Amino acid sequence: MATGGEAPREIEALIDLMARLPGLGPRSARRAVLVLLKRRGALMAPLAQAMAQVAASARDCRVCGNIGTADICGICADDRRATGEICVVEDVADLWALERAGVFRGRYHVLGGTLSALDAVGPEELRIPALIDRVQAEGAREVILALNATVDGQTTAHYIADALAGTGVTVTSLAQGVPIGGELDYLDDGTLGAALRARKSF
Prior knowledge:
Largest sheet: 5 strands, mixed
Strand content: 5-15%
Strand order of the largest sheet: 4-3-5-6-7
Structural class: alpha/beta
Distance between the termini: 61 Å
Radius of gyration: 20 Å
Order of helices and strands: HHHEEHEHEHEHEHE
C-alpha cells in the first residue's frame, strides 16, 4: 500500500509500462497516466477496451509482415496490387507512411529491422530469406529498397542487392528527397512521392 506521496503499486506498474513506450520517459509516462486517471470514463476505459481488442486480433501478415487483423493483409489480398513491384521497408511504420502518401500501388515486404553487427542482428533475424524466396515465387520484376538512409539501412540495402544479383530482378532505391540519416516515417507525403518516382538502380 502506498504511503505519503507515493502512487499505489498498481498505478506505479502502469506508469512503468507506459515509460517503455517510445518518446515517453518516466515523467511523461506519469503525466499521461494522471490524465488517464482524471478521464477514466471518457478516455481510460475506451483505451483499455481498444487495447484489449487489438491485442487479441492483431497479427502479422504471413506474406509481407504488415500488421492487420487477418493472416493475409488487405494489400497482399488485393489482386490490383500484383504489379510485379515489391517495396522493401524496415518497419510497418514505413509501410504506413508510403501508403499515406499514396504513391505506390504495388506490394510491400517488411524486414522487421536492419542488419546490425553490434546488436547481433543478421539476415536470419530479419525477413530477408523470406524476401528472396518471395521474389522468385512471385516472379517479381522490380524490388524497391525503401530503407532509411542510415548506416544500418544502407548496409541492409547492399546485402539485399547482392543477394538478388543474378536473379533477373531489377533492384532500385529511393532517390532525391530522402536526407542522409532520415527516416521515412518522419518525411512528408510530397517528399516520399518524389523519392519513389525518382528511384534509381541500386
